[in-house]
Amino acid sequence: MLLHDGAPVYVYILIEHQSRVDRFMAVRLMAYIALLYQDR
Q1: How large is the C-alpha radius of gyration of the chain?
Q2: What is the residue-level pLDDT of the chain in tens, covering all 40 positions?
Q3: How many whole angstroms separate alpha carbon 12 and alpha carbon 26?
Q4: What does the alpha-carbon distance between residue 15 and residue 31 come to, in Å, rounded to a whole number?
């Protein structure tokens, strides 16, 4: 998929399953996002 100016659009899907509540899930998701930005 491309934007009007021809730049590519990236779509990331994250599915994570846990058997119990994790207080640090938000921190883990932020780490995933930071790694995605670092990879670009």
Answers
A1: 14
A2: 788 898 888 888 888 888 998 899 999 999 988 998 887 6
A3: 17
A4: 15
Q: Is the dihedral of CA 26, 34, 13, 7 positive or negative?
A: positive
Q: Count CA atoms within 13 Å of residue 39 on its CB side.
A: 7
CA angle 36, 15, 25 (to 5 degrees): 75
User: Domain map of the chain by residue range?
Assistant: 1-40
Provide the pLDDT for residue 12. Answer: 84
Q: What is the DSSP letter of 8?
A: B
> What is the predicted pLDDT for the residue at 36?
86
